[in-house]
Amino acid sequence: AAKSLGRGNFQFFSAEMNTATHERLMLENRLWQALEQEEFELYLQPQIELATQRIIGAEALLRWHHPELGMVGPDRFIPIAEESGLIIPLGDWVLQRAISLLDSWRAPGLAHLRLAVNLSARQCHGPGLLPHLDRQLHSHGIDPALLELEITESAAMQDPERSRTLLNELRSRGIKVAIDDFGTGYSSLSYLKLFEIDRIKIDRGFVKDIESDPNDAVIVAATIALAHSLGLEVIAEGVETQAQRDFLRAKQCDEAQGYLFARPMPVAQFEAMVKAATAPVAAV
Ligand code: C2E
Ligand code: MG
Ligand code: MG
Ligand code: MG
User: Which residues form the EAL domain (predicted)?
Assistant: First the structure.
C-alpha cells in the first residue's frame, strides 16, 4: 500500500510540475513576441503629496495584454523576463516609453509631474542601462529630475559596489533614485549608509497593519523620522484607508500611493484625472 501511495504521490506532483513548467514555457515563448507585437502597456498609479492632497506624479507599472489570457500582471511575467534575459529589451522599452511620456507632458497642468519607473536587478547590473538612458534623455531633452528610478534593496544588494557606482551615475545626471519595498530586505539600514538616494518607499507590508499592529506603527513612524533626519523623502505604498493616510500625515510622511487614492490606470485616464484635479474652480 505504501508503495502505491508513493507512486500516486509522485504522479500527482509530476502532473502539477508539468502544469507549472508548461505555463512558464508558454509565457516565456510568448513574451518575446509580445514585445514585437506591442502587447505591453504602461499603467500609471498617482502619487499624492500628503500635505496638499495634490497628485505630484505617478509610478509606471507594466501590463501585458495577452491575446488569450487577457491582462497578465507583472508578478507573473517579470520574473520570467528576468531569468530569460528579455528584461533587458523590455526594460529599455519601459524607459523609452516613460521618457516620451514625460516629453508629452510639457503642457499646462502636466509639466510638474514626476514619473517613477521600476528597474530590475539584471537591468541595474547590465552594461546597457546608462547609455540607453543617456540616449533617451538627450533625444527628448526632458528635465532628468522628473524621472525617478526605483530599485529594490535586494536588487541593489546583489552587487553593492556596482550599485553604488550606478546610483552615483544616475544622481550625477540629476535623475532621482528611490528604494522600493523599503524594510523588506535584511539590509535596510546598511543600505542607507552605502547608497546615495533621494527617497525611500515604505513597503505596503508595514502600512497594511498600521492601525492594528502597534509594532508596525512604531516602525513606520521611526522610519519616516530616520529618513528625514538623513535628508531623504518618504513615500508610503499600499495606502488603502483614510486612517492609514491620517496616521502617515500625522507622522509627516511626504507622499503616499495606494488604492485609497487610485488604482493603476491607463495613461489617458491618469492625464484626465490630473487635469480635472487642477482645473480652475471657476470653470465648473
Ligand atoms: P512595486 O514596484 O512595489 O509596485 C507596487 C505594486 O503594488 C503594484 O502592483 C501596485 O498595483 C500595487 N498596489 C498599489 N497600491 C496598492 C494598494 O493600495 N493595495 C494593494 N494591495 N496593492 C497596491 P503591480 O502593478 O502588480 O506590480 C507588481 C510589481 O511588479 C511591482 O511592485 C514591481 O516590482 C514589478 N513591476 C511592475 N512594473 C515593472 C516594470 O516596468 N519593470 C520592472 N522591472 N518591474 C516592474
Ligand atoms: Mg515600484
Ligand atoms: Mg514597491
Ligand atoms: Mg512591491
Answer: 24-278
Which residue has a Cα nearest atom 20 of ligand 1? Answer: 238
Distance 240 CA to ligand 1 centre (A): 14
Q: What ipTM was assigned to the predicted interfaces of this complex?
A: 0.98
Q: What average pLDDT does this structure show over 171-196?
A: 88
pLDDT the model gives residue 131: 97
Residue list, ligand 1 pocket, CB within 6 Å: 45, 61-62, 73-75, 78, 91, 94, 118-120, 150, 180-181, 204, 237-240, 257-259, 264
**Reduced 3-state DSSP string for the chain:** CHHHHHHHHHHHHHHHHHHHHHHHHHHHHHHHHHHHCCCEEEEEEEEEECCCCEEEEEEEEEEEEECCCEEECHHHHHHHHHHHCCHHHHHHHHHHHHHHHHHHCCCCCCCCCEEEEECCHHHHHCCCHHHHHHHHHHHHCCCHHHEEEEEEHHHHHCCHHHHHHHHHHHHHCCCEEEEEEECCCCCHHHHHHHCCCCEEEECHHHHCCCCCCHHHHHHHHHHHHHHHHCCCEEEECCCCCHHHHHHHHHCCCCEECCCCCCCCEEHHHHHHHHHHHHCCHHHC
- Ligand 2 centre to CA of 251 (Å) is 22
Q: Which atom of ligand 1 is nearest to the CA of 152?
A: 34
